Amino acid sequence: MRQKVKEAAEALDYHPNLAAQSLIARRSFLIGLTYERPSPSYVVELQNGALSRLDDGRYRLVVLPFAHVASRPEELGKLLLRAGLDGVLLAPPASDQPLLLDMLERQRLPYARITPHSDLDRGLVVAMDESAAGHAVAQHLLALGHRRIGIILGDPSHAASIGRLEGYRRAFAEAGVGIDDDLIVTGDFTYAVGYEVARTLLASAKRPTAVLAQNDDMAVAAIAAARELGLSVPQDLSVAGFDNSEVSRTAWPPLTTVNQPVAQMAWDAADRLIAMLDGKTVPELPQRRDHAHELLVRASTAAPAA
Amino acid sequence: MRQKVKEAAEALDYHPNLAAQSLIARRSFLIGLTYERPSPSYVVELQNGALSRLDDGRYRLVVLPFAHVASRPEELGKLLLRAGLDGVLLAPPASDQPLLLDMLERQRLPYARITPHSDLDRGLVVAMDESAAGHAVAQHLLALGHRRIGIILGDPSHAASIGRLEGYRRAFAEAGVGIDDDLIVTGDFTYAVGYEVARTLLASAKRPTAVLAQNDDMAVAAIAAARELGLSVPQDLSVAGFDNSEVSRTAWPPLTTVNQPVAQMAWDAADRLIAMLDGKTVPELPQRRDHAHELLVRASTAAPAA
DNA sequence: GATACGCCTGACAACGTTTACCGATTCTCG
DNA sequence: CGAGAATCGGTAAACGTTGTCAGGCGTATC
């Protein structure tokens, strides 16, 4: 009987109406993903990671990019609450907005936070130790013998910037090397701005022998700026990035960087969010999952010229 | 009165239940976007373009990547039909699958096709003349004086590959230059495969003086392969890409390429799809909209060495 | 032949809206 | 002051499912 009904349904191309199912099940089977405007490869990895967990087709992924979260978290909150989602994945910097988390909690919209920096005990958290990762890459340059190291920060409204910088500082302190604040410039994680600030950094009187960029896009921009000035990488200047995004592999020379397992973290976040939605009681879920970074030494860094 | 109700709703954080609205309105206010696995920047541009049209918040965008469409179009059809969408944006190569279009039409799921190559009168179409674009970039290399030009094709299951190649052939014929089939290699639009086939191309006895790659990722891969062999670009080898994706701007040297207004085309596709969904009768809509390509000459191409 | 059990059928309420309609009330204007 | 229009509150139906419950039928058990 069951079989016959299924066959008939198939023959008639019948699909149950999802709106009616949602109405009675009291959920929409929609998962949101919100992110700011980071590099394309970061977005795509995030998306693919989340989708690979959703691929049984029960849940669907709605993308909700939102610019300037830090200055208007309530607006993002409204957007998310109006979107009729069952749960939402928060990529940085939205994952670090206490006001946003407040709103979501008040309205009972479950969320999973991807690499937040503060309030690590709040909600579902998929974490990576940004500070340790920053430490690793800074230590690598110091071990090569660099002493005058420039730093290109990402968008200061992303907590990741602060975390990574903190790691750099630790590594410098351990090596007994002082940080020259004149060699710290601030970008916003994009190539365009990265290029501009890299130019001013490299044109300064005390030009560094190495550059720590807080993501790969800005690192590639720094390489381009160096070439414009007639410097070759890594002979005259070492450049290290962050993220192990596609561009780090396709750049020339391939970038030394830190792998951030973005796709895997997004999978994990989706996995835990869904487990929660499917009614696994919260206590049996660990609140937080940590992922390891990995330093990838490639051809863009070398010992400084004597 | 109206005002008072709105205030009360606001005060209570009341949001109407979207599932119930969908049920009665007989639509879900979900738009799907399906694509294969092209470069990250293409996906992101596509997405942002579509989202910029959707940003009034009435419609939401669901992403549905799907690999190997050409070999299993019906599966994608089922996925789309089960997703409860009001309409779907088809990026290549899904936009060129007649079986898929058949299924969507049979089930009355409206769709908009982005840069299809065949059946241009079917459904809503946002087109670009791939052949003319291919012609433009090939002509550029020929005008510089190149005669031995290598070609790196994209995935042959994408109609775009064929269209662009057709344009190359026209330009070659006009210049009275024969195409050497040994200098044509086939990639799949990815960096990794592009790198491999570029190596074999450049290692061949009759090494070309210029390379036409069918997208920017493969062009960048060709530059990397050239560097590995000690060739510098553009002195020893000119390389032209396709798409004007972010990587073409961030590469070194910046790539000569053809701008494909992806974001704008996605906006257009979303615009027309929504106009259709909102009940504008089909006749008053033009069936097809064309977008112009634009040759962007940058630093990766130059006259061949004497 | 009575009882218990399984499977199937049909009827009905519920989910949270929107739309339509009716009668009652208030407002506007001559 | 009265006619007509506008507004209001209330009620009911509909959207397409899922879940429950009662009742009917057939089969196995004692």
Folded structure, characterized:
- Chain A is 42% helix and 15% strand.
- Chain A is of the alpha/beta class and 306 residues long.
- Chain A has two domains: 159 residues, 3-Layer(aba) Sandwich (Rossmann fold), CATH 3.40.50.2300; 131 residues, Rossmann fold, CATH 3.40.50.2300.
- Chain A has a six-stranded parallel sheet, with helices on one face. A four-stranded parallel sheet of chain A has the order 7-6-8-9, sandwiched between helices.
- At the A-B interface, helix 2, helix 3, strand 2, helix 4 and helix 9 of A face helix 2, helix 3, strand 2, helix 4 and helix 9 of B.
- Chain A binds a DNA duplex (30 and 30 nucleotides) through helix 2.
Concise summary:
The structure is a homodimer of 306-residue chains. The first copy, chain A, has eleven helices and twelve strands.
- State the major sheet of chain A: 6 strands, parallel
CATH architectural name of the largest domain in chain A: 3-Layer(aba) Sandwich
Main sheet: strand order of chain A:
2-1-3-4-5-11
**SSE run of chain A:** HHEHEHEHEEHEHEHEHEHEHEE
Q: Report strand % of chain A.
A: 15-25%
Question: Which chains have the largest interface?
Answer: A-B, 44 and 44 residues
**Percent of residues in helices of chain A:** 40-55%
Tell me the name of the CATH homologous superfamily of the largest domain in chain A. Response regulator
Low-confidence stretches of chain A: none
Q: Quick one: CATH class of the largest domain in chain A?
A: Alpha Beta
- Helix tally of chain A equals 11
* Rg of chain A computed from alpha carbons, rounded to a whole number of angstroms: 22 Å
For this structure, the quaternary state is homodimer
Shape of chain A: elongated
